[in-house]
User: Fold these one by one.
Assistant:
Number 1:
Amino acid sequence: MSDMGKKGTALGKVDVSKKAVKIQDLGDKVGIAVRLFESAKMKFERGQDSYKEWANIIRLLNIQIKDIQHFLAVAHHNMGVIHAGRGEFEKAEEKFHHAIELDPEYALAWYNLAVTYKRLKDDIKCRECVAKAKELGYNPSEKC
């Protein structure tokens, strides 16, 4: 399948292999949180003071929330790329919006939303999304 989104400018893609190491790191940290949770739960159930353990779990998981949201955004984005490649631009638009809701600074999702709007013949939204992608550091080739 072409990455052209059916007749037009190529969609931008994420290098998933670069994300794999970070996902593994995230998995390790969440695994640590799960083990800490089990330990704190046992202490709590025995009536022992487990406040410090719960605070550490909260701190550890709060740090990971942003990464989890970004991975969800990447998944929605990549599904949008697939929909666009199939010519399903309304579905692509929905997925790119989900990605941006999860990670508003996801420049590539903004760019691909612009490409989608161009296919949907909405030049105003296309220009807005290209501008946002540029503002976030993506150098799009798309002109609306």
Note: The mean pLDDT is 87.
Number 2:
Amino acid sequence: MHGDVVRSYSAGSAVFYNKGSTHRPLSIDGARVLYIPFDGIIFGKSPEDLVAKMHKVGTSEEALEYALHWMVPDEAERRKIMERLVI
């Protein structure tokens, strides 16, 4: 936990890494990290199911919209999904 900080994120940040990347999240105070793979191994029955699970654990609206952007190409459908989450 010593040395130079490479990058710092505030509470509630959503961070996305490219497939094959490596990272080592560290925290002095502790942190909760929610890992969701977007490489075809999605833990949900559908994009809407996955985003509903992300919403349930407190994922920010910005992160939900970003995740949907990659999973649902149609903008109107993405809006409908977000509206159903009642954000």
Note: The chain has a mean pLDDT of 76.
